C-alpha cells in the first residue's frame, strides 16, 4: 500500500465543492441549501488537511485552519438553522421560492 | 486687496444668513433681504471696475491659498496634485462678473412675482449667485467645477419648485443634460489633473503647449484632441448647441421669470466662457483644427434657432430659440479664429446676456399680467399698456441687431471674422440675420400692435419701479452699441492673450 | 512559553479590541442579570462608551510603530489603524442610531442582544483589519458575518426580518465557502497561512501552473469577498437584506460591514498579489494582467447598482442599490490600484465620506419612518415643510452620495478618477462608465430631493427627533460638508498618522 | 501476536487474519452480552430478594439468555405498512455497527489491543456519536408516535450528555498529554486517575449511564410512558440489534472507564504477579457491577430533570474541572 | 516504516471492525429469515398505537426545545474540539495557553449562562 496522492484529495475536494455549489444554487429547500454549504466548507477542509500533509511544504497550520473552519461552519449552521426555525414558524415553509415578502 | 475677490464671490452669504434668521412668514422682509443680499457683490464688482478704470492692474486681486492636496507626493514636488483656492479676475471675467452681479440684483428685484416659500427661494438665488460669480473668477478647473455644479443644483431647485406647470420635468431635463455635460467636463478635468498634476489654468496652458510633466504619465497628442473635444462637448450642452438644446427651451418656458433672466443672461454664458477660457485658452493648437467644425455648428445653430423661433406660437419659446440662435453667433465668432470674430463672440456673450434678460423680464411681466405668453392670445398691447410695449419693442430691436445697439456690434464683428476665414459659410450664415429680424418683429409686432383683445383692456401698465430694471438694461445695451470700447477695452487684453495663443 | 515571554508581548496593540471584547461581555452579563424593569436601551449607552473608549485607545496607540504579535497573526500597522478608526467611528454612530430604534413589533425580547451583537460584529471587523494571518482573517470575517446574520433577523416576530436573515445566511454561507476554498489553495501553494511568509513565496514563483493557480485562488477569494461588499454579480442578497433588516442594521451593513469587506480585500489580495508576476517571463505584474477582470466587475456593479436603483420605491431597497453602486466605484479604485499613488487614501477617504453621508441619510430615514413600518420613498414627501432641518440634512447627504462638489462625496470620487487616469494607459472606459452611471444616479438621488423639497406632503405630523439622532445627523452633515470643502483635514490626518501605509 | 502483526507490512493475508481475529472477538463480546444480561437479571433478582432466572441451564439459569436469543431469531419479522422501509431496515445496522467499531481501539491488556491509533480517545467519542443517528432514524422511520418521541428523546439525551462526557475526558487528556489509550494507561502506572480526577470520574460515570440509556436515564425507552420507545415497532432480530448494541456499549464503556480511570491492566502495588488480563477483567467486572447496581437502586428521572441536570449541573462542573485541573497542573507539575 | 505499517494496520483493523459491525446484523437477519415464519397480515403491518386505530400522521411538529438543544449541542461540541488539542499540548504550551483557555472557557461559560438565563435549558 502506498500513500494516496495529493491530487486525489484535491479532486475529491473539488468534486465535493462543485456538488455543494450546485446544490446551494439550485435547490429550493433551505435545509438542503444549508447542507450544501456545509459540503462546500468541508471540501475546503479536505484541501487544508491534504495540503497540510502532502503539500509542497507540509505544515500543521492547515489542520489548525480546518479546525477553526469546522467550528465556524458549525456556528454558521446553528445560526442558519435558528433563523430558519424562526422563519418556518411564521411562514410554514422552508422553500426558498416562497420567501418572497421582500420584493419591490 | 486680495481679499476683494473672496468678498465678491462669497458676499451673498451675508444675505443668506439674514434670510435664515428671518421668519419664513415675513414676505416683505424676505424679499427685501433677498434683494439686499445681491447688493454687496454688485458693489464689490463696481469697486473692482472702479479700480480697473483708474488704471490698477487686475492681477493684484489674484488670491491663492493652499486648499486640497491629493496623494502624498510632496517628496517629488510640493505642488503636485494640489488644488489651490485661487481666484483671479481679468477684463473678460470682470465684464461677466459685473453683468452677473447686475442681473442677479435685477432678478432679485423682479422676484416680486414669486408667490411662495420666499425664504428658500432667495437663499437658493443667492447660492446661484455665488456659483455664477465663482465660475467666472475660479482659476483652476476643480474650483470652476465646484461653482459650476453649485449653479446647477440651485438652478435645479429654483426651476423645479417655483416654475410653471411642467416645472419638475423641466428641472429634470435641465439636470440630466447638464449632468451629462458636467460628467464629461469632470472626466476631462480629471484626466488633465491626473496627467498634469495641476488644474491651474495657466499651468495647464503651459504644460499642454510645452509638453507633459515627466513625473506622471504623458498626455499624448491624440489625447489633447480628445480632451478638447470633450470640453467643447461639455460646454456645447450648456451653451446649448443643436441638437442638445431641448432642455434649454423647456427651462426657458417653465422657469420663473427671474430665473430665466439669469439663466438666459448668465448661465448659458458659462458655456461660452468655458469654451473661450478653457478650450481656446488651454488647447490653442488643437482648437485651431476644430474651429471650422465649430463655425459650421455655429451657423447651423444660428439658422436652426432662427427657423424654429419663426414657427413658435409661444413668445417664450420664440425667445428661447432666439437664444439658441444667438449662441450660434458666439460659435461663429470663435470658429472664425479671427481677432474680430472672437471679439464678436465675446461681445455677443455680454450683449445677449443683457438683451435676453431684458426680454425675459418683460415677457415675465406680460405673463404675470395676462396669464399667457402665447402670441395668438396676446395682441394690441400697445394701446392698453404702452410703456410695456415700448420696452418690448426696444428689446426686440436690440435682439435683432439694430445698429446702435449692442447686438449689432457683436453680430457684425462675428460675421466679419467668419467672412475673413470662411466666406461661403459666412454667406450662408448671414441669411440668419434676416430671419432674426423677421421672427422677432413678427412676434413682437403681433403682441404690441396685433388685434386687440378685450380682456386686456384693463391691464395696468408698468409703474416706475418696474421700469427701473428695463431702463438699466436698455441703457447698457445702447451704451455698448454706441460706444463699443466700453466693453472692448476691458476685453482687449484677454483677446490679445487668446489671439497670441492661437497664433494670429 | 513562560510568563515572561507572554508579558513581553506588545499587548497594548490589542487594547482597542480588548475594550470592545470587554464591553461585549459586560453588556451580555448585564443583559442577563439586570432585573427586567431596567430598560435595555441603557445598554446602548454603555456600548457607545465602550466604542468611544476603544477609539480613544486607538488614538493612543497611533504613534507606536508597527507591532506584530502572536506569531505575526496580529499586526497593528498603519492600515489597521486607519481602517479601525473608520470602523469605530461608524460603529459609534450606528450605536446611536440603534439606541433610538423603536419598531412597532418584534424587538421586545431581543433588545439586549441587539446592542452587543453590534459589538461582536465590530470586533470581527477590527480583527480583520489587523490580522496578518489567513486564519485570524477568516475568523474575523466570520465573526462579523455571523453576528450580522443574527442582527438582520433580530426582529424574531417579523417576517421580513426573518426572511432577510435567511437570505443573508445562505448567500453569506456560499460566499464564505468560496472564499475558504480559495484560501485553501493559497495555503496549499505556499504552505503557510501567514500573509508575510506567503507573499515572499508567491513573489518568487515563476512556474506558469502555479501562477495560474494563484490566479484561480485570487478570483475565488475575490468572488467570495464580493458578496461581502455586495458587488455585482454577487449583490443579489443586498436589496432583500437591506430592506428586511432593521434600519440600524442596514446602516451597519452598508457602512461598517462594507468598510470591513474592503479592508479584507485590500489586506488579502494586495499584500499577497502586489508583487506576484502576471506571466512566466515577468513582463507584467499580476494586477496588470488581471485588472481587466476587476474592472469588468466594477463596471457591471456600477451599472446594475445605479440602473436598478431607478425603479425602487422602497427607501432601504434604494439605498441597497445605491450602496451596490458605491461598491462599484470603490472597485474602480481597486481595479486601477489608485494609479499607484492614491490607492489607500482614496479608499480611506471614500469610506470615510461614505460613512458620514450614508449614516446621515439612514438616521433621517429612521426618524421619518418612525414606528410606522413604512419605508416607501413617499415617506419623505414634503419633509421640508414638516421638518426643514431633517430635510436639509437628508438633502446634503443625498447630494454627497450623488457626488456633487462641495461635499465629501465629490472629493472621494475625484480621488478615484485621479487614480484611474494617473496611469498609462488610463482606465478611460471604466471612468466613463463611472461618470455615466453617476449621471444616472442623479435621477434617483434627485428624485429623493424632489420628494423632500419640491412636493408637498399629505402627512402633516412632525417627526420626533431624539437627541441622539439629532447629534448624529448634525455631525454627519457637518462632516460631509467639512470634508467636502476642506478635505485636507482628513487627508492630512491620514498622511500624517498613517503615512502611505507603507508598512502594510 | 497482534503487536507483531501490527508492525508487519499490510497485505491481504494480514487482512484475513485480522478478520478472523475480529470475528473471534465478536464471539467473545456476544458471550459477554449473553452473560451480562443474565448477570444483570440475576443481580437484580438477588437485590430484590428474588431468585432470578433459574430454569434453563441448571439452577443458575445459565442458558436463559441463549434461549431468549433463539426465540428472537425465530420470531416473525414485521415491518409496519406506513414505515419508511429502507430507513427502517438500515436503522438497527446504523445503531449496532458503531458500537462494535469502537471496540477496535480499546486496549484490554498491554498485549491485547487490535488497533493502536494515536487518537484513540477521540475515535471512541466520534464513532459512538453515530449511534444516535441510528436511533433517531429508527424512531423516525417507524412512523409511530411513541417511536418518534422516543427517538427524539434519545437524541436529545444523548447529545446533552455527550458534552459533559467529552469534557470530563479532557481532564484525563490534560494529565497524560495524549489521546492514545495505551499512553493513558501507561500514565497510570503509579496512580490511577480516579484519584487525581474524582470529579471527572463521577461525571463520566453519570454521563455514560445516560449515554447507555440505562436507568435512571432510560427515558427513551420508558415502558410506562412510551411503550418501548424508539423500537416499539421493531420485533425479532431487528429489535435484538438495538439491545445488542446497548450491551456492547456497556462493554465498551466499562472497558473505557477501566482504561481511563482505573489504570487499565495495571496492577495494584505489590500485586504485580497477577496477570494483566486478570486485573483488567476484575476492574471491568467491577464497573459492570456498578452499572447494574445503579440501575437497580435508582428510580427513573423525569425528562426535564434529566436535561437540566445535564446542562446545568454536569456541564458547568465539567468545565470547572478542566480549568481546575489545568491550574493544578501548572501549580504542582510534579503530582499532576 | 514500522510506524507507518502500524498506522496502516491499525486502520485496517478499524475497517475490519466496521465490516463485521455491518455484517453481523445482515447475516443474523439472513439466518433468521431462513428460520422464522412469515405470515403477514394487515393488522400486523399496521402502526401500533396501544391497540386502537392510529389517528393523525405520526410525524407531528415537535417541541422546539429539541432543536434548541440540538443547536446548543452543535456549538458546545465543536467548542470542545479546541479543548482536546489544547489538553494534549498543554505541557508544551505553558501558562500562556492556560490563560488563553481560561478566557475561552469563560466565554463558553457566558454562552452557557446566556442559554440558562434565556430559559433555553428549561425542558417543558
TrEMBL record, chain A:
Alphabetically, the GO molecular function entries are: NADH dehydrogenase (quinone) (non-electrogenic) activity; quinone binding
Q: Its topology with respect to the membrane?
A: Multi-pass membrane protein
Q: Write down the EC number.
A: 7.1.1.-
Entries under InterPro entries matching the protein: NADH_UbQ_OxRdtase_chain4L/K, NUOK/Mnh_C1-like
Entry keyword set: Cell membrane, Membrane, NAD, Oxidoreductase, Quinone, Translocase, Transmembrane, Transmembrane helix, Transport
- Membrane-crossing segments per the record: 6-25, 32-52, 64-88
Q: Name one GO cellular component term.
A: NADH dehydrogenase complex
List the catalytic activities from the record: a quinone + NADH + 5 H(+)(in) = a quinol + NAD(+) + 4 H(+)(out)
Pfam families (UniProt xref): Oxidored_q2
Which subcellular locations apply to this protein? Cell membrane; Membrane
GO BP term, example: ATP synthesis coupled electron transport
Q: How does it assemble?
A: NDH-1 is composed of 14 different subunits. Subunits NuoA, H, J, K, L, M, N constitute the membrane sector of the complex.
Name the NCBIfam families on file: PRK05715.1-2, PRK05715.1-3, PRK05715.1-4, PRK05715.1-5
HAMAP family for this protein? NDH1_NuoK
Q: Which family does it belong to?
A: Belongs to the complex I subunit 4L family.
What this protein is reported to do is described as: NDH-1 shuttles electrons from NADH, via FMN and iron-sulfur (Fe-S) centers, to quinones in the respiratory chain. The immediate electron acceptor for the enzyme in this species is believed to be a menaquinone. Couples the redox reaction to proton translocation (for every two electrons transferred, four hydrogen ions are translocated across the cytoplasmic membrane), and thus conserves the redox energy in a proton gradient.
Identification of the protein by name: NADH-quinone oxidoreductase subunit K
**Origin organism of this chain?**
Peribacillus psychrosaccharolyticus (Bacillus psychrosaccharolyticus)
UniProtKB/TrEMBL annotation, chain B:
InterPro entries (UniProt xref): NADH_Q_OxRdtase_chainM/4, NADH_UbQ_OxRdtase, ND/Mrp_TM
Q: Per the database record, which ranges form the NADH:quinone oxidoreductase/Mrp antiporter transmembrane domain? A: 138-436
Query: Where does this protein chiefly localize?
Result: membrane
Q: Where are the transmembrane segments?
A: 6-21, 33-52, 87-109, 121-138, 144-164, 176-196, 216-237, 258-278, 290-311, 318-339, 345-366, 391-418, 424-441, 462-483
Q: Which family does it belong to?
A: Belongs to the complex I subunit 4 family.
Say if the entry is tagged with keyword Transmembrane helix. Answer: yes
> Where can this protein be found?
Cell membrane; Membrane
Please indicate if the UniProt record lists Transmembrane as a keyword: yes
> Which protein is depicted?
NADH-quinone oxidoreductase subunit M
Membrane association type: Multi-pass membrane protein
Pfam families per UniProt: Proton_antipo_M
For this UniProt record, give its keywords in alphabetical order, as a comma-separated list: Membrane, Transmembrane, Transmembrane helix
**Which terms does the UniProt entry file under GO BP?**
ATP synthesis coupled electron transport; electron transport coupled proton transport
Segments forming a coiled coil: none
| GO terms for cellular component | plasma membrane
- NCBIfam families this protein is in? NDH_I_M (TIGR01972)
| Listed GO MF terms | NADH dehydrogenase (ubiquinone) activity; NADH dehydrogenase activity; ubiquinone binding
Q: Where is the signal peptide?
A: none
Automatic annotation (TrEMBL), chain C:
Where is this protein localized, as stated in its record? Cell membrane; Membrane
Q: What is its EC number?
A: 7.1.1.-
UniProt keywords (A-Z) are: Cell membrane, Membrane, NAD, Oxidoreductase, Quinone, Translocase, Transmembrane, Transmembrane helix, Transport
InterPro entries named among the record's database cross-references: NADH-Q_OxRdtase_suN/2 (IPR010096), ND/Mrp_TM (IPR001750)
Q: State the signal peptide span.
A: none
Q: Which residues form the NADH:quinone oxidoreductase/Mrp antiporter transmembrane domain?
A: 131-434
The record's GO CC annotations read:
plasma membrane
- A Pfam family of the record is Proton_antipo_M
Tell me the Gene Ontology biological-process terms attached to this UniProt entry. ATP synthesis coupled electron transport
| Membrane-spanning residues | 13-34, 43-62, 82-101, 113-129, 135-154, 166-190, 210-230, 251-272, 292-311, 318-341, 347-368, 389-421, 427-453, 465-486
Q: What is its main location?
A: membrane
Reaction equation(s) it catalyzes: a quinone + NADH + 5 H(+)(in) = a quinol + NAD(+) + 4 H(+)(out)
Annotated GO MF terms: NADH dehydrogenase (quinone) (non-electrogenic) activity; NADH dehydrogenase (ubiquinone) activity; quinone binding
Q: Its membrane topology, per UniProt?
A: Multi-pass membrane protein
Protein's UniProt keywords contain Iron:
no
**Partners and quaternary state?**
NDH-1 is composed of 14 different subunits. Subunits NuoA, H, J, K, L, M, N constitute the membrane sector of the complex.
What does this chain do?
A: NDH-1 shuttles electrons from NADH, via FMN and iron-sulfur (Fe-S) centers, to quinones in the respiratory chain. The immediate electron acceptor for the enzyme in this species is believed to be a menaquinone. Couples the redox reaction to proton translocation (for every two electrons transferred, four hydrogen ions are translocated across the cytoplasmic membrane), and thus conserves the redox energy in a proton gradient.
Family stated for the protein in its record: Belongs to the complex I subunit 2 family.
Descriptive protein name: NADH-quinone oxidoreductase subunit N
From TrEMBL, chain E:
| Organism of provenance | Peribacillus psychrosaccharolyticus (Bacillus psychrosaccharolyticus)
Q: Does the keyword Transport apply?
A: yes
* Subunit structure, as described in the record: NDH-1 is composed of 14 different subunits. Subunits NuoA, H, J, K, L, M, N constitute the membrane sector of the complex.
Q: Which keywords label this protein?
A: Cell membrane, Membrane, NAD, Quinone, Translocase, Transmembrane, Transmembrane helix, Transport
Q: What is its main location?
A: membrane
Q: Which family does it belong to?
A: Belongs to the complex I subunit 3 family.
Enzyme class, UniProt record, top EC level:
translocase
The catalytic activity of this protein is classed by the Enzyme Commission as 7.1.1.-
Has keyword NAD? yes
Q: Where is the signal peptide?
A: none
Query: What InterPro entries is this protein classified in?
Result: NAD(P)H_OxRDtase_bac/plastid, NADH_UbQ/plastoQ_OxRdtase_su3, NDAH_ubi_oxred_su3_sf
What's the source species' lineage? Bacteria, Bacillati, Bacillota, Bacilli, Bacillales
Q: What is this protein called?
A: NADH-quinone oxidoreductase subunit A
Please report a single Pfam family linked to this protein. Oxidored_q4
Where do the TM regions start and end?
Answer: 12-35, 66-87, 93-116
The reactions it catalyses are: a quinone + NADH + 5 H(+)(in) = a quinol + NAD(+) + 4 H(+)(out)
Task: Offer an example of a GO molecular function term for this protein.
Answer: NADH dehydrogenase (quinone) (non-electrogenic) activity
A cellular component term (GO) from this record?
Answer: plasma membrane
What are the subcellular locations of this protein? Cell membrane; Membrane
Q: How does it sit in the membrane?
A: Multi-pass membrane protein
Q: Briefly, what is this protein's role?
A: NDH-1 shuttles electrons from NADH, via FMN and iron-sulfur (Fe-S) centers, to quinones in the respiratory chain. The immediate electron acceptor for the enzyme in this species is believed to be a menaquinone. Couples the redox reaction to proton translocation (for every two electrons transferred, four hydrogen ions are translocated across the cytoplasmic membrane), and thus conserves the redox energy in a proton gradient.
Amino acid at each position: 500500500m502506498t500513500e494516496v496522492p495529493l491530487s486525489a484529495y484535491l479532486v475529491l475536494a473539488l468534486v465535493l465543492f462543485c456538488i455543494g455549489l450546485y446544490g446551494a444554487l439550485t435547490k429550493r429547500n433551505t435545509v438542503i441549501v444549508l447542507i450544501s454549504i456545509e459540503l462546500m466548507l468541508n471540501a475546503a477542509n479536505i484541501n487544508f488537511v491534504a495540503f497540510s500533509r502532502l503539500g509542497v511544504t507540509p505544515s500543521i497550520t492547515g489542520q489548525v485552519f480546518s479546525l477553526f473552519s469546522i467550528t465556524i461552519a458549525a456556528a454558521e449552521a446553528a445560526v442558519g438553522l435558528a433563523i430558519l426555525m424562526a422563519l418556518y414558524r411564521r411562514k410554514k415553509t422552508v422553500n426558498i421560492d416562497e420567501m418572497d415578502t421582500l420584493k419591490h | 486687496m486680495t481679499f476683494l475677490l473672496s468678498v465678491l464671490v462669497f458676499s451673498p452669504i451675508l444675505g443668506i444668513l439674514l434670510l435664515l434668521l428671518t421668519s419664513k412668514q415675513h414676505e416683505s422682509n424676505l424679499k427685501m433681504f433677498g434683494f439686499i443680499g445681491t447688493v454687496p457683490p454688485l458693489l464689490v464688482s463696481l469697486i473692482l471696475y472702479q479700480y480697473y478704470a483708474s488704471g490698477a492692474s487686475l492681477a493684484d486681486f489674484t488670491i491663492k491659498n493652499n486648499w486640497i492636496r491629493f496623494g502624498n507626493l510632496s517628496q517629488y514636488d510640493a505642488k503636485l496634485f494640489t488644488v489651490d483656492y485661487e481666484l483671479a479676475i481679468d477684463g473678460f471675467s470682470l465684464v461677466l462678473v459685473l453683468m452677473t452681479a447686475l442681473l442677479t440684483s435685477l432678478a432679485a428685484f423682479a422676484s416680486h412675482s414669486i408667490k411662495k416659500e420666499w425664504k428658500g427661494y432667495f437663499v437658493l438665488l443667492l447660492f446661484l449667485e455665488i456659483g455664477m460669480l465663482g465660475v467666472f473668477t475660479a482659476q483652476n478647473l476643480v474650483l470652476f467645477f465646484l461653482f459650476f455644479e453649485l449653479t446647477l443644483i440651485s438652478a435645479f431647485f429654483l426651476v423645479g419648485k417655483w416654475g410653471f406647470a411642467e416645472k419638475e420635468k423641466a428641472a429634470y431635463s435641465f439636470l440630466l443634460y447638464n449632468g451629462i455635460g458636467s460628467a464629461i467636463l469632470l472626466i476631462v478635468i480629471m484626466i488633465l489633473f491626473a496627467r498634469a498634476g495641476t488644474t491651474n489654468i495657466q499651468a495647464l496652458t503651459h504644460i499642454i503647449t510645452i509638453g507633459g510633466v515627466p513625473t506622471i504619465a504623458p498626455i499624448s497628442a491624440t489625447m489633447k484632441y480628445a480632451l478638447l473635444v470633450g470640453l467643447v462637448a461639455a460646454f456645447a450642452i450648456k451653451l446649448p448647441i443643436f441638437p442638445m438644446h431641448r432642455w434649454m427651451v423647456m427651462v426657458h418656458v417653465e422657469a420663473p421669470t427671474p430665473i430665466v433672466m439669469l439663466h438666459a443672461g448668465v448661465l448659458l454664458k458659462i458655456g461660452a466662457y468655458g469654451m473661450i477660457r478653457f478650450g481656446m485658452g488651454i488647447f490653442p493648437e488643437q482648437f485651431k483644427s476644430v474651429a471650422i467644425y465649430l463655425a459650421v455648428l455655429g451657423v447651423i445653430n444660428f439658422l436652426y434657432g432662427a427657423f424654429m423661433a419663426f414657427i413658435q406660437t409661444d413668445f417664450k419659446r420664440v425667445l428661447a430659440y432666439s437664444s439658441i440662435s444667438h449662441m450660434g453667433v458666439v460659435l461663429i465668432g470663435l470658429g472664425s479664429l479671427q481677432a474680430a470674430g472672437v471679439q464678436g463672440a465675446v461681445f455677443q456673450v455680454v450683449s445677449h446676456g443683457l438683451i435676453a434678460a431684458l426680454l425675459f423680464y418683460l415677457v415675465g411681466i406680460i405673463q404675470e399680467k395676462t396669464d399667457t405668453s402665447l402670441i395668438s392670445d396676446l395682441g394690441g398691447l400697445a394701446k392698453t399698456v404702452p410703456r410695456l410695449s415700448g420696452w418690448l419693442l426696444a428689446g426686440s430691436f436690440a435682439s435683432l441687431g439694430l445698429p446702435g445697439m449692442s447686438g449689432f456690434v457683436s453680430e457684425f464683428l462675428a460675421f466679419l471674422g467668419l467672412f475673413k476665414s470662411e466666406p461661403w459659410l459666412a454667406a450662408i450664415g448671414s441669411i440668419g440675420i434676416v430671419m432674426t429680424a423677421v421672427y422677432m418683429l413678427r412676434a413682437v409686432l403681433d403682441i404690441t400692435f396685433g388685434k386687440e383683445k378685450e380682456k386686456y383692456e384693463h391691464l395696468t401698465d408698468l409703474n416706475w419701479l418696474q421700469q427701473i430694471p428695463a431702463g438699466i438694461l436698455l441703457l447698457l445695451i445702447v451704451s455698448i452699441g454706441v460706444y463699443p470700447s466700453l466693453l472692448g477695452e476691458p476685453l482687449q487684453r484677454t483677446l490679445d492673450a487668446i489671439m497670441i495663443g492661437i497664433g494670429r | 512559553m513562560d510568563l515572561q515571554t507572554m508579558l513581553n508581548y506588545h499587548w497594548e496593540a490589542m487594547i482597542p479590541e480588548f475594550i470592545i471584547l470587554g464591553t461585549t461581555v459586560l453588556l451580555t452579563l448585564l443583559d442577563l442579570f439586570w432585573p427586567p424593569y431596567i430598560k435595555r436601551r441603557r445598554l446602548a449607552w454603555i456600548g457607545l462608551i465602550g466604542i468611544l473608549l476603544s477609539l480613544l485607545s486607538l488614538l493612543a496607540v497611533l504613534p507606536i510603530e508597527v507591532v506584530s504579535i502572536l506569531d505575526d497573526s496580529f499586526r497593528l500597522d498603519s492600515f489597521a489603524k486607519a481602517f479601525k478608526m473608520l470602523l469605530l467611528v461608524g460603529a459609534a454612530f450606528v450605536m446611536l442610531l440603534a439606541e433610538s430604534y423603536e419598531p412597532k413589533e418584534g424587538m421586545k425580547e431581543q433588545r439586549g442582544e441587539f446592542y452587543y451583537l453590534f459589538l461582536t460584529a465590530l470586533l470581527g471587523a477590527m480583527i480583520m483589519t489587523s490580522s496578518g494571518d489567513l486564519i485570524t482573517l477568516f475568523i474575523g470575517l466570520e465573526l462579523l458575518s455571523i453576528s450580522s446574520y443574527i442582527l438582520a433577523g433580530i426582529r424574531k416576530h417579523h417576517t421580513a426580518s426573518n426572511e432577510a436573515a435567511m437570505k443573508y445566511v445562505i448567500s453569506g454561507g456560499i460566499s464564505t465557502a468560496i472564499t475558504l476554498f480559495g484560501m485553501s489553495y493559497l495555503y496549499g501553494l505556499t504552505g503557510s497561512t501567514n500573509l508575510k511568509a506567503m507573499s515572499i513565496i508567491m513573489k518568487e514563483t515563476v512556474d506558469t501552473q502555479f501562477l495560474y493557480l494563484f490566479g484561480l485562488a485570487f478570483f475565488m477569494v475575490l468572488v467570495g469577498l464580493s458578496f461581502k461588499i455586495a458587488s455585482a454579480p454577487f449583490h443579489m442578497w443586498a436589496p432583500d437584506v437591506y430592506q428586511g433588516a432593521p434600519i440600524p442594521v442596514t446602516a451597519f451593513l452598508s457602512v461598517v460591514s462594507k468598510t470591513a469587506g474592503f479592508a479584507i480585500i485590500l489586506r488579502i489580495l494586495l499584500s499577497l498579489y502586489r508583487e506576484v508576476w502576471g506571466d512566466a517571463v515577468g513582463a507584467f505584474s499580476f494586477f496588470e494582467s488581471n485588472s481587466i477582470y476587476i474592472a469588468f466587475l466594477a463596471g457591471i456593479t456600477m451599472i446594475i447598482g445605479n440602473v436598478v436603483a431607478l425603479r425602487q420605491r422602497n427607501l432601504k431597497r434604494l439605498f441597497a442599490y445605491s450602496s451596490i453602486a458605491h461598491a462599484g466605484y470603490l472597485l474602480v479604485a481597486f481595479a486601477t490600484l489608485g494609479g499607484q499613488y492614491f490607492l489607500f487614501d482614496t479608499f480611506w477617504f471614500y469610506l470615510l465620506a461614505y460613512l458620514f453621508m450614508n449614516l446621515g441619510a439612514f438616521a433621517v430615514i429612521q426618524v421619518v419612518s418612525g414606528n410606522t413600518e413604512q419605508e416607501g420613498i413617499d415617506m419623505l414627501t414634503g419633509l421640508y415643510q414638516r421638518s426643514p432641518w431633517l430635510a436639509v440634512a437628508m438633502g446634503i447627504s443625498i447630494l454627497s452620495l450623488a457626488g456633487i462638489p462641495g461635499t465629501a462625496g465629490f472629493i472621494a470620487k475625484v480621488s478615484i478618477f485621479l487614480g484611474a487616469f494617473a496611469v498609462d494607459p488610463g482606465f478611460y472606459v471604466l471612468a466613463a462608465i463611472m461618470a455615466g452611471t453617476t449621471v444616472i444616479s442623479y435621477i434617483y438621488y434627485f428624485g429623493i430631493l424632489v420628494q423632500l423639497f419640491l412636493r408637498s406632503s399629505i402627512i402633516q405630523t412632525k417627526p420626533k427627533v431624539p437627541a441622539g439622532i439629532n447629534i448624529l445627523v448634525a455631525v454627519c452633515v457637518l462632516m460631509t460638508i467639512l470634508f467636502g470643502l476642506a478635505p485636507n483635514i482628513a487627508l492630512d490626518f491620514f498622511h500624517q498618522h498613517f503615512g502611505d501605509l507603507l508598512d502594510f | 501476536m497482534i503487536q507483531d502483526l501490527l508492525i508487519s507490512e499490510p497485505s491481504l493475508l494480514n487482512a484475513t487474519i485480522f478478520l478472523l481475529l475480529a470475528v473471534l472477538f465478536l464471539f467473545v463480546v456476544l458471550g459477554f452480552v449473553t452473560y451480562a444480561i443474565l448477570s444483570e437479571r440475576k443481580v437484580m433478582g438477588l437485590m430484590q430478594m428474588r431468585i432470578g432466572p433459574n430454569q434453563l441451564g441448571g439452577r443458575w439459569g445459565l442458558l436463559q439468555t441463549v434461549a431468549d436469543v433463539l426465540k428472537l431469531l425465530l420470531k416473525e419479522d414485521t415491518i409496519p405498512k406506513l414505515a419508511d422501509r429502507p430507513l427502517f431496515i438500515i436503522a438497527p445496522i446504523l445503531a449496532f455497527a458503531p458500537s462494535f467499531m469502537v471496540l477496535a481501539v480499546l486496549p484490554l491488556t498491554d498485549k491485547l489491543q487490535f488497533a493502536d491509533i494515536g487518537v484513540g480517545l477521540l475515535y471512541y467519542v466520534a464513532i459512538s456519536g453515530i449511534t444516535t443517528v441510528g436511533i433517531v432514524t429508527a424512531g423516525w422511520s417507524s412512523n409511530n408516535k411513541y417511536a418518534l418521541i422516543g427517538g427524539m428523546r434519545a437524541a436529545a439525551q444523548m447529545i446533552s450528555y455527550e458534552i459533559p462526557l467529552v469534557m470530563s475526558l479532557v481532564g484525563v487528556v490534560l494529565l497524560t498529554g495524549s489521546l492514545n489509550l495505551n499512553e493513558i494507561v501507561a500514565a497510570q502506572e503509579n496512580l490511577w486517575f480516579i484519584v487525581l480526577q474524582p470529579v471527572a470520574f463521577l461525571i463520566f460515570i453519570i454521563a455514560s449511564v445516560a449515554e447507555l440509556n440505562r436507568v435512571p436515564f432510560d427515558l427513551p425507552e420508558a415502558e410506562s410512558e412510551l411503550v418501548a420507545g424508539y423500537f416499539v415497532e421493531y420485533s425479532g432480530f431487528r429489535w435484538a440489534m438495538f439491545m445488542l448494541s446497548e450491551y456492547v456499549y456497556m462493554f465498551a464503556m466499562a472497558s473505557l472507564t477501566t482504561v481511563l480511570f482505573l489504570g487499565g491492566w495495571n496492577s495494584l502495588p505489590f500485586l504485580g504477579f497477577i496477570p494483566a488480563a486478570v486485573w483488567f477483567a476484575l476492574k471491568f467486572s467491577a464497573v459492570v457491577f456498578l452499572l447494574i447496581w445503579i440501575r437497580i437502586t435508582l428510580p427513573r428521572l423525569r425528562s426535564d430533570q434529566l436535561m437540566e441536570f445535564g446542562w446545568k449541573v454536569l456541564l458547568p462542573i465539567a468545565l470547572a474541572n478542566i480549568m481546575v485541573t489545568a491550574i493544578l497542573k501548572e501549580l504542582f507539575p510534579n503530582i499532576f | 516504516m514500522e510506524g507507518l505499517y502500524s498506522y496502516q494496520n491499525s486502520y485496517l483493523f478499524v475497517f475490519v471492525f466496521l465490516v463485521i459491525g455491518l455484517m453481523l446484523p445482515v447475516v443474523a437477519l439472513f439466518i433468521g429469515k431462513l428460520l422464522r415464519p412469515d405470515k403477514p397480515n394487515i393488522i400486523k403491518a399496521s402502526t401500533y398505537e396501544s391497540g386502537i386505530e392510529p389517528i393523525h400522521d405520526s410525524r407531528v411538529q415537535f417541541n422546539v426545545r429539541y432543536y434548541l438543544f440540538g443547536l446548543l449541542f452543535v456549538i458546545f461540541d465543536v467548542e470542545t474540539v479546541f479543548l482536546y488539542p489544547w489538553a494534549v499540548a498543554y505541557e508544551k504550551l505553558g501558562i500562556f495557553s492556560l490563560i488563553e483557555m481560561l478566557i475561552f472557557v469563560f466565554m463558553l461559560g457566558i454562552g452557557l449562562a446566556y442559554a440558562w438565563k434565556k430559559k433555553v435549558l428549561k425542558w417543558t
